[in-house]
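Hello,

Our lab assistant flagged a job as stuck in the queue for most of the afternoon. It eventually completed. Since we weren't sure the result was trustworthy after the delay, we are filing this so someone can double-check. Below is the sequence as submitted and the structure that was eventually returned. Let us know if re-running is recommended.
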Amino acid sequence: MIEGTCDVRFARVREAFRENFSQHAEVGAAVAVHAGGRVVVDLWGGHCDAARTRPWREHTLVDVFSVGKGIATLIVLDAVSRGELELDAPVVRYWPEFGAADKSAITLRQVLAHRAGVPAIREPLPRGAGVDAQRMARALEQQEPWWQPGETHGYHVNTFGYLLNELLRRVSGDTIGRRIARELRASLGADMYLGLPESEFARTAEFQFAEWTPPDPAGLSELELMRRNAYANPIDLSGAGTVNSSAWRRAEIPSANLHATARGVARVYAALVAGELLPASLLRDATIEHAQGVDRVLDRPSRFGLGFQLTQPERPLGPNATAFGHFGAGGSLGFCDPEAGIAFGYVMNAMGARWQNPRNRALVDSVYASL
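-- returned structure --
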């Protein structure tokens, strides 16, 4: 059963959302859309658990995985606007230990553009290390670049969040999770958490993570090892087997464990469209192309601004070149299109296609068909 509200003009979105359950194996999900400065879609449906005993509610939270990268990016860009960080400063200005293993010239801009060359950690890490932000930061200090920083790009699948979090911690004593709580949840009213308190567990959906066994690292080429470790060093780095655990939910893992509602995600992107969160010049810099082409980690085309994914033909965010945001594992998505005045949030709890996902594509297409 689909619940919520939908402007009659956007009836196509409701139908696409309904069809995701009947045609694309959706279990539980929500979608929210702002257009022209107002909420035009706010829908939810399905179930919070695989057994389908708990209905998805209006305020259900769920892990949105890499949608959190866009939110972490916003927090760090806000720190840039405050003068706490500089985009073209070397990381070692704020984090001297990061300069080990030939990394002293890497800049914050390169980190945000996925050009820093440290998408994975070579040293084998034990299961559970990923929930310890300080341990991951120490491992990144010792990691040599997998390619010459700045020469190419590759998606920093999980290391992206640890790098940004440590930089913010060094200059302010804050974490990204604390800034989200203060600047987005409290001030903006965006329902999202990085570091989920136990008081919110009862309204959190179980995420159905597809089984995945990474290759044995023995005998892999350098490129294969980098790609393997980007997702699976430690073995549970990306949430496989742990995504519904208390330890995972409580941890602050900016690349992978933001918990949010669709409303919360859309609210943040609506504020970006309205010019409420960042200076216009900084947002322009962050949403022009900084990296494009075949991604060294993903081995497929990708396109980045500073932290934000940009629209691309292989995975469009609508028809306009101005759209930016971030996808999450299995299909979740947060983005905005300043040209169209659109802000969009979609969250779900059943892993779908990671690359070209029919659920989010149908919803995005239906939004633009409604304009």
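-- support follow-up --
The delay was a queue issue, not a problem with the job. The result is valid. Residues 71-177+208-247 form a domain with the Beta-lactamase fold (CATH 3.40.710.10). The longest strand covers residues 38-46.
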